Amino acid sequence: MKSLVSSMKKELSLLKPSDIRTFDEFASKIPGIIKFTMGEPDFATPEHIKAAGIKSIQENQTHYAPSNGTVALRQAAASFLQQKYAQQYDPMNEVIVTNGATEAIYTALTSILNPGDQVIIPTPIFPLYIAITLLNQATPILVDTSKNGFRMSPEMLQEQLDKHENVKAVVLNYPSNPTGVTYSQTDLDQLAAVIKGKQIFAICDEIYSELNYDAPHASLTKSLREQTILLNGVSKSHAMTGWRIGIMCAPRAIAQELSKVHQFTITTTSTMTQAAATEAFANGINDSDAMKKEYRKRRDYLFEKMTSYGFECAKPEGAFYLFAKIPQGLIQDDQKFIYDLAEKAKVALIGGSSFGPGGEGYVRISYAASMEDIITAMERVGSYVKENKGAKSR
Predict the structure, then answer these.
(1) Which residues cross the membrane (predicted)?
(2) DSSP SS3 for 333
């Protein structure tokens, strides 16, 4: 009998285990290592939010919630988006509560893609979009933005539309994981103009919207609401990654279809975590301010140190990542570099090639870590550069 594995979904053969998690597991076994690998806030969930979750359990709110989320959470989320970003969505018909932004990405792409469709994905980018596109028998069109400040221009977008006839969606993540770069409202308006009125969805992942450092958060929803599927949540804004609450918003007719895939994928998210997220959106509207202030300090320190060591960096405008080009004279293969750095300097970064074309030769630093660890790690990186400069590229 043939192996049952060989009869599984053939698209699985196109996927590899996550480079990020594989390396993180390796690095975790090195004694004394300082890790900047995972995209997770190092702050604790605010006390008032934890209390709301505990109260929910104590009051026996431990049964199924409505599939699209509790009315209270959808109302709180809609109010939050309106107050913060002037994004207006009907909580009853245009807001879906998801199992983190991850499930929202899965649901959005699975709902809209047919075999043979194409998805324009500017890279470097969080690799989940690519994997889910492939699983849906669609083709990711990867657009290297490294020569344009890690932003996709309207000209780059138009070029891809001219070259490909079956584009169903464009993915945008801003502020970006892994670069920390974001778009201005003018940038987004110009991108919107390229696809407005076409049979193309815009999937806008704004999970880092609350972590914009130098300018107000901009959004494609302001110029292309009718074609946009908006993703957000509380993971990064309120340090709630483990609570697994995301938000997906779209015009009513689109949201009705999205809710079908959502319902048959997870049924619903947990009731007590929805209570906590309701508190976050309703009464923690500015909870991210203190975190953002600390992230900005870390960004400035890291940027100064890494550039002084010869790394070329795009200065992050949001999120909590620094994307740095490995200096000449050091190992240029980013995957080999991060293993060498981990073993010799006991500092763990992520190789840029894990994020697609344009990431080769870069490393991503997640500065969701204490300032003490950042200072120590930078001392180690400085010593590593000094001791290893001149190594042949390999």
Answers:
(1) none
(2) coil
